[in-house]
Specification:
Layout lengths: L1 H24 L16 H17 L4 H24 L8 H13 L3 H21 L6 H14 L1 H21 L10 H17 L1
Helix pairs in contact: 1-2, 1-3, 2-3, 2-8, 3-6, 3-8, 4-5, 4-6, 5-6, 5-7, 6-7, 6-8, 7-8
């Protein structure tokens, strides 16, 4: 019963996140140098969030862990939808959840979460600087920081390495090979997959 309730709750979080993304992105045309506009797989995201909630319940996550997972799920879904639809990752979906996580970490004196957020963004920030936001956008960098804060640097680095590899493979064999990659969906997917391990280890 608890797993079912968590599944419904996380599915609802994903639906709200997708709705908020649509509201924020309404009327924003994709940038000329950004990834091509597309559609977010909302049903897939809602179902995936529901599975995540059920897994967290199965692993007997504590209420605080469920709360953190809900915040991160909202951010991941909203960023995925935003990047897919209009090619941007709004700060409201990254900096807000990141600030909340870092506040919780500081309150509990969990300095490793803060250190992880900083460590994991270094190569991505360097990519954003050298590519001038074309190869790697700053919205992606902020989303990576969120991943580092919630997963811890080692697990986040592993997840981001897989995300990069999957993104390159999909882009290499996809239709729009010369267009920029919408990277947020890959970050969100791998962070979501690793989230139960990162929160309950």
């Amino acid at each position: 019963m608890i797993a079912l309730l968590c599944a419904v709750f996380f599915g609802l979080i994903a639906y709200i996140a997708a709705t908020c993304s649509a509201f924020v992105c309404a009327g924003i045309p994709p940038a000329d140098d950004g990834p091509p506009a597309g559609r977010a797989p909302q049903l897939f995201l809602i179902a995936g969030a529901a599975v995540l909630g059920a897994v967290m319940a199965y692993l007997k996550a504590e209420p605080l862990q469920l709360g953190v997972a809900a915040i991160v799920t909202f951010a991941l879904v909203a960023c995925w939808c935003s990047d897919a639809v209009c090619g941007i990752v709004p700060d409201v979906f990254t900096l807000g959840p990141l600030a909340a996580l870092l506040f919780f970490a500081a309150a509990q004196r969990d300095w490793w979460a803060i250190v992880s957020a900083v460590l994991i963004i270094v190569p991505f920030a360097a990519a954003a600087i050298f590519s001038r936001g074309y190869g790697m956008g700053w919205g992606d960098v902020k989303l990576v920081a969120l991943s580092g804060a919630v997963l811890g640097a080692p697990l986040a680095a592993f997840a981001m390495a897989i995300a990069c590899a999957v993104a390159v493979i999909v882009h290499r064999f996809g239709r729009a090979r010369t267009a920029p990659i919408a990277f947020a969906p890959y970050i969100a997917l791998l962070t979501g997959i690793a989230l139960p391990l990162g929160l309950t280890h």
